[in-house]
Design goal:
Radius of gyration: 25 Å
Distance between the termini: 48 Å
Oligomer: single chain
Helix content: 25-40%
Number of strands: 16
Strand content: 15-25%
Largest sheet: 9 strands, mixed
Order of helices and strands: HHEHEEHEHHEEHEEEHEHEHEEHEHEE
Length: 488
């Protein structure tokens, strides 16, 4: 019941019934359930992308930041090209209403008994097939390295509350202690993996770790407890070697209140690290940039600008996905403009080498409050505004936000223009937009987790008022200082 065709590639000693399962799976397409972590708040966007590109109906998890969908394995490669997902895993088994025992000892005993009873074979076969598809990391961190803080624009997992916790552990071998690892879905922030020296695959003993994420206030155990005991049972069942850093297989144990999901990771590095090569002090995730762009539904020939582009994550992502629109990236900071140019050139070179069409994007250095654009010449504005934490300041935002909203209204087409703006400075933004009622109308807000901060993605619609005819057009006597920044 275990490992399908994977005995040949990994040199595992299977019992006869396992070998029969392996032979049965080989040469046929399997139907499996794939789980994906996505930027919190953008689960519906990810589900819609799965429907459009994969042809599957996605189910949004009760645990924020995850979706599930069924595919046949012939579509496995296409899943890796989804733009809205961070990490992928294949489901071994789901338990919607798992009954946890009241005592820690009994609950851990249940986890130990669960491991050998799970239907591992299909998931492990998908893992084997996936090895030729996944993007591998370039280097691996040591076990004692500290986890870097998420940068601005990086979507960290929803922080654990008093009711829950999250941890990554491998099962400890005798004489070893448990060491926490990076949280599932955030392995990319823990550093890249070091390429290992090639081994004889036929004689290779697989190395593994267990990653546990837990949320809930009625559990009598911690994530560490669950990872240790469940991982120990997995190790005993498969006779794999535990290794917290140089692992081949990452087993996922996600516990969300009464829901338990066991899976196997299909990504070593988050898919959001796909286009940006030159990073600034704060860089927006490509998956979050895709989600923001999706909210405004770009059309053919639309002119789309990012007036505070930073490293250019939004225009780069947009020009790749929406090739028939035209993107302009701008910033007042010369280093930000240089990074954007380098990131655009990297993609242009990649497209040239592949024989693909060049990107429809240009980069400009400008003053946000005095854009060198004609009035009513822009269809869509998408940008990440300064939060006032890592870049800018809360005090400056009170002057900056009204000024930039006014200038955005000037260049945006009345009646049809849209703006999608990300900021964590909710109080300042709400006050600024309330003063712009004649120019902007708020359509809706998507709440997202950005580097551990709750931020809002505000979708605005340009009113039909002609610029220059409303009280909001009057600029204050003193202009607000511009903010050269990327994303907070």
């Amino acid at each position: 019941m275990t490992m399908s065709a994977f005995s040949e590639s990994c040199g595992e000693n299977l019992c006869p019934e396992e070998e029969n399962t392996s032979s049965a799976n080989e040469g046929r397409d399997l139907t499996v359930t794939i789980g994906a972590t996505v930027p919190t708040g953008f689960e519906p966007t990810a589900a819609e992308e799965v429907r459009q590109k994969i042809g599957a109906d996605a189910r949004i998890s009760k645990d924020r930041g995850r979706i599930y969908f069924q595919i046949s394995t012939d579509k496995l490669a296409s899943v890796h090209h989804l733009k809205s997902v961070d990490n992928l895993f294949v489901i071994v088994q789901e338990f919607e209403n798992y009954e946890f025992k009241d005592s820690k000892e009994d609950a851990m005993s249940d986890f130990q008994q669960l491991a050998p009873q799970l239907p591992w074979s299909d998931a492990l076969e998908v893992w084997r097939m996936n090895n030729s598809l996944k993007k591998r990391r370039g280097r691996r961190r040591g076990g004692n390295s500290s986890k870097p803080k998420p940068g601005k624009g990086e979507d960290a997992p929803v922080p654990a509350t008093e009711e829950g916790d999250a941890a990554d552990l491998i099962p400890a071998e005798k004489g070893q202690s448990d060491t926490p690892q990076a949280e599932e879905g955030e392995g990319d922030q823990a550093g890249n993996l070091e390429k290992e020296a090639p081994e004889d695959e036929a004689n290779k003993t697989l190395k593994f770790r267990v990653t546990c994420n837990r949320a809930g206030d009625k559990h009598c155990f911690t994530s560490n407890d669950a990872a240790r005991d469940f991982g120990g049972a997995v190790q005993e069942f498969f006779q794999w070697k535990a290794d917290m850093t140089k692992f081949d297989v990452e087993v996922l144990l996600n516990i969300h209140y009464s829901e338990v999901v066991v899976g196997i990771a299909l990504t070593e590095e988050s898919l959001h690290r796909r286009n940006i090569t030159h990073f600034g002090p704060t860089t927006l995730r490509s998956t979050l940039a895709y989600g923001m762009l999706s909210l405004c539904n770009p059309q053919v020939s639309d002119v789309i600008i990012d007036p505070m582009c930073g490293t250019g994550a939004i225009p780069v992502e947009g020009s790749i996905e929406w090739q028939h629109s035209f993107f302009i990236a701008g910033d007042n900071n010369d280093m930000a403009v240089s990074r954007t140019v380098n990131n655009v050139n990297h993609i242009q070179k990649r497209n040239q080498d592949a024989g693909s069409a060049p990107l429809s994007v240009d980069t400009v250095q400008w003053d946000l409050c005095h854009l060198p654009m004609r009035t009513s010449s822009v269809d869509i504005i998408v940008t990440d505004m300064p939060f006032g934490k890592r870049m800018g300041s809360r005090k400056k935002n009170w002057d900056l936000y009204p000024s930039c909203l006014r200038e955005m209204a000037r260049v945006c087409r009345p009646g049809t223009g849209k703006a999608v703006l990300l900021t964590q400075d909710k109080k300042c933004f709400s006050k600024a937009i309330s003063r712009m009622g004649g120019l902007w109308r708020r359509v809706h807000t998507v709440w997202v987790n950005v580097g551990g901060l709750v931020a809002g993605v505000y979708v605005l619609k340009r009113t039909g008022s002609v610029y220059g005819t409303t009280p909001e057009d009057v600029r204050p006597p003193q202009e607000a200082p511009n903010s050269g920044k990327d994303e907070q």
